[in-house]
Amino acid sequence: MAATIKDVARLAGVSQSSVSRTLAAPDQVRADTRARVERAVAQLGYEPNRIARGLSTGRTGTIGFLVPDIANPFFPGIVKAAQRRSREFGLAVLLADSDEDPATETDLIRTLTKQVDGFVLCAPRAGDDDLRSVCGDVPVVLLNRRVGQLPSIIFDNADGIRQALAHLAALGHRRVAYVAGPRTSWVNRERLRAVRTGAAGLGLDLFEPGNVSPDLEGGVAVADLVLAASVTAVVAYNDMIGLGLLSRFNARGVTVPGDVSIVGFDDIPASALVSPALTTVSQPKDQCGRAGIDLLADLLNDRDRPGGTRVCLPTRLIVRGSTGPAPRP
Amino acid sequence: MAATIKDVARLAGVSQSSVSRTLAAPDQVRADTRARVERAVAQLGYEPNRIARGLSTGRTGTIGFLVPDIANPFFPGIVKAAQRRSREFGLAVLLADSDEDPATETDLIRTLTKQVDGFVLCAPRAGDDDLRSVCGDVPVVLLNRRVGQLPSIIFDNADGIRQALAHLAALGHRRVAYVAGPRTSWVNRERLRAVRTGAAGLGLDLFEPGNVSPDLEGGVAVADLVLAASVTAVVAYNDMIGLGLLSRFNARGVTVPGDVSIVGFDDIPASALVSPALTTVSQPKDQCGRAGIDLLADLLNDRDRPGGTRVCLPTRLIVRGSTGPAPRP
DNA sequence: ACAAGATCTGGAACCGCTTCCAGCAATCGT
DNA sequence: ACGATTGCTGGAAGCGGTTCCAGATCTTGT
Fold this sequence. Notes:
The first copy, chain A, is α/β, with parallel strands linked by helices. The first copy, chain A, is built from twelve helices and twelve strands. In chain A, strand 8 (233-236), helix 11 and strand 9 form a beta-alpha-beta unit.
């Protein structure tokens, strides 16, 4: 059995209180008491039981990290960074995967809420109101989603889209398609809006084949529609759709970027591996995960943040092989 | 503030004990008492505080799930399945990422060990003895690793390799390379052994360029060595190495599978997306994650398992575009 | 050297729940 | 109808910490 605070107290010849204090507020105990306690702690290899501590302090030293789908290549990078940062704060991470289902999501939050000090909700699928009601009970940081004034870390989707469109325009493209993701996705709405204003600003002719599921199949399914619309370039809601387009174009003998250019969004690992490699908008995922934990940690210690509680991270266009000059008509 | 057991007891007009019993062992309380408690529970929306329960029962309802690198595409699928299964058991999952470092790994296990009921260690990097010592304190299930008689779920690496070599032999390949992964990896040792016996059995000439890191760079770095050895096919320790080989071959104008065939191992998502798509040995990852939780749950309830505590899951060769008939000399 | 103040310490209550134990009521056998 | 089981229930003692409070000890100023 592991040593308890009582064992330490007995060995050191002091009271439990003193042991507790030595650990929590060393400057409140006399040097020699502290020394004896520390010796006893070392000798017994004592480490406070976090569960017990949690019961009396109401703080568990654990945070909940919720993702819609950990198997989606967009998320592991964020989780990893968050994980690493949490460890630096001595926080453990309770991972929850909602399987893209809003009901499961709120359910998970509800059941986990008493075991954690706070939540990081990564691209939550639940509605604004549900999210707001959750945040009443426990500190929450939103990642890749913004709801009112709630603390959040987002990427500069609009600027990413702007860069992508400017890149295409510079290559001589005049008519481009935007393949939208799920209608209910906050990020999709952001990107869609940016595409519309961006296209208008650059004088681009915009074709919108509608919303598809944000995976390979979605891209494959919409590819022929895009082709029939005689665009010379297509911007995809995300890389998976972009890869689906690429795959279907290849299959139909449409050359990329000779006949049509493709730009994705997210810079998932696979995008660099296909050929031609996918031009895409990259987001600092590790920074996002890290900043999410930083923000939550500040919230937990109700520290004020100089930068405010709503962070926007820059995006960057990565030009690879899938974009090239527009073909001559 | 959330309702406590006291509130429920007061409202129902019974003692705390009865409330507790109603929840834990309903058949030990009289029907009408139970009914009153249940009504009070419903009315207050009471849910027992797991922390408090954990303190008195010594069980937290949480399991630790440790991976070497969640950003490695091999793991998210397993984590996801494990996650889903845990939820069915009412278990929460504490995720830990060791960053491929054995010391971090044992450290994580040690610090988390008092917050969890048990661990699932996914492809642990620590040495056998460290692992054994951990398992003394807390129930542990090993995934993709076997250490003595410890409970474990592994894939049938040997059979996967056998299938891959048989496939190549059938295509007329006579001289093949095996690009080994990290020397310290248990899985690598398994696969290497299987390659040697398999090649001998099939009368294949085996070239071993040595160990490389199990990522894209590893594959790229070793590609020229493989080529210089005039093999017609190469089996890679894993898909990332396989993709690295493919990429370098492409760059050098070596056609795949015209000049040389490539077989990977793991069937990560990207392998299906590249062209030619990578022939690879697939492992039932979701089954693995699920079985890991099942096994741990049995251990936690010290149930006896009919199947024993060491499970071996089948592997399956997925033939794609990267393998073809051996070129005529 | 002594009172006032500051510093340190131990006792005890408490966090929310489980579980042992004793007691009481209802049931049973004869 | 009576004692012996059996079935339920409430009280209370933990689980392992933290923290408030009162009292003991040590400084300090004079």
